[in-house]
Amino acid sequence: MDHFLYRDGVLHAEDIPVAEIAAEVGTPFYCYSTATLERHFRLFDEALAGTEHLVCYAMKAASNQAILKTLAALGAGMDVVSGGEYARAKAAGVPGDRIVFSGVGKTHDEIHAALSGGIRQFNVESEPEMAVINAVALELGVKAPITVRVNPDVDAKTHAKIATGKSENKFGIPISRAREVYAHAASLPGLEVIGIDVHIGSQLTELAPFKLAYEKVAALTEELRADGHDIRRLDLGGGLGIPYERNNEAPPLPVEYGAMVKETLGHLNVEIEIEPGRLIAGNAGILVSKVIYVKEGEDRKFMIIDGAMNDLIRPSMYEAFHEIVPLKEAEPGVDFTKYDIVGPVCETGDTFAKERNMPPVQSGDLVAFRSAGAYGAVMASEYNTRPLIPEVLVKGDQFAVIRRRPTFEEMINRDTIPEWL
Ligand SMILES: *Cc1c(COP(=O)(O)O)cnc(C)c1O
């Protein structure tokens, strides 16, 4: 559920007509709903009620400071995957003991910054990384809390580019080697082993792969405890999918996920940590764009819009589907037309949808991409010297630009000219 609904035929973001925001901000832009962000965070928090837990928002999904502050105010932790994200989380006021550091390639400097600034735990992905965390901790005279990310070798049944839990993926250490790696970790004086981490992929639409992975983690917990490790926290990663096609998809709900977690791991008496990204931000954001031209091809119609692959890369990168709707709801009985919906970028990949059935549109009309809040703005680039598009946050009947569009001059002035030119 989200808060982008038609009222009297006009698409609203909470209590504001989206077209009013467009008139002020210009298109294209991202628009987020505070109520939806909050609702999704609470769904997870409530799904784990009764169990000691922390929901750490995977901020790579959407990392604007205003979004982070909105979630942090509800008590969210953050899952970060770079020094930049760590700095963003701190800048948004998230205390270090609510920040988890994930990712396969944490550098010495990133580890140093996180250990100095405070960290809940590092999710360690390899033995070389473990050695560096140990060394930095000893340098700083502290103990680094760690889990080891295990790769359970389960098929997440999702798009190949976002599956992370098979043995052929670069993530984690094989679960078969876990005991050996934990023994090694326990021997390093700069580390404090506190738990186990697993994350098998993104946009999962079934519970079964999660359950399979968590059963393996449960068994490993008992083994590691028997080996003498104090396993007191399980980080279960993120990955729960969202319905991009509302009428055809019904991925499990957070409450169902939470029930499965309790059933699979409840007997272990551990603190549970989860790292949802997409489910919190995905349906909390739309991308608003304007139709520039409608071009009649030989056998198809092209809807050329001012948004492009550099603003939202998911369709070209993952063959992702986004519902695209007009800001003015179609009149009942109107004949729909099929459009290929494309952006202005000079790449054939700059295609958002083929033969999409839509009410007829004209140049100047506004459309919204639904479910664009996660992995949208954060993956944008300035390809074709197109400015990064603004982000807007709505709360009730108020809205604010939370990142403005840079001017061409600002973009150009980031280049510097060597003295020989
Ligand atoms: C990407 C990622 C997540 C979030 O995944 P979603 O599908 O957005 O929920 C969580 N944990 C880790 C380690 C990740 O890499």
How would you describe this structure to a colleague?
The structure is a single chain. The protein is an alpha/beta fold. It folds into two domains: 4-31 and 282-412, Lyase, Ornithine Decarboxylase, Chain A, domain 1, CATH 2.40.37.10; 34-281, TIM Barrel (Alpha-Beta Barrel), CATH 3.20.20.10. It is 28% helix and 25% strand. It has helices at residues 18-25, 34-47, 65-72, 83-91, 108-117, 127-140, 178-186, 208-226, 254-265, 278-281, 314-318, 408-412; strands spanning 4-7, 10-13, 16-17, 29-33, 53-58, 77-80, 99-101, 121-124, 144-151, 173-174, 191-197, 233-235, 271-274, 285-296, 301-305, 324-326, 337-342, 351-358, 366-369, 391-395, 398-403. Strands 4, 14, 15, 16, 17, 18, 19, 20 and 21 form a nine-stranded mixed beta sheet that branches. Helix 3 links the parallel strand 5 and strand 6 (77-80). The longest helix is centred in the middle third of the chain and has 19 residues, at 208-226. The model has no long low-confidence stretch (mean pLDDT 96). Pyridoxal-5'-phosphate is lined by residues 58, 60-61, 79, 102, 199, 202, 237-239, 275-279, 374.
Round the Cα radius of gyration to an integer and report it. Answer: 23 Å
Q: How many structural domains in the coordinates?
A: 2
Named once each, the bound ligands are: pyridoxal-5'-phosphate
Terminal Cα span: 55 Å
Helix content: 25-40%
Which descriptor suits the 3D outline? globular
Name the poorly predicted regions.
Answer: none
The CATH fourth-level homologous superfamily of the largest domain = Alanine racemase
Mean pLDDT: 96
Supply the helix-strand structural class: alpha/beta
Q: What would you say the CATH architecture of the largest domain is?
A: Alpha-Beta Barrel
Give a short account of the largest sheet.
9 strands, mixed
- Overall strand count: 21
Topology-level CATH name of the largest domain: TIM Barrel
CATH class of the largest domain, named Alpha Beta
Domain Orn/DAP/Arg decarboxylase 2 C-terminal: 29-373
Organism: Cognatishimia activa
Binding site for substrate: 278, 314, 318, 347, 375
Pfam families: Orn_Arg_deC_N (PF02784), Orn_DAP_Arg_deC (PF00278)
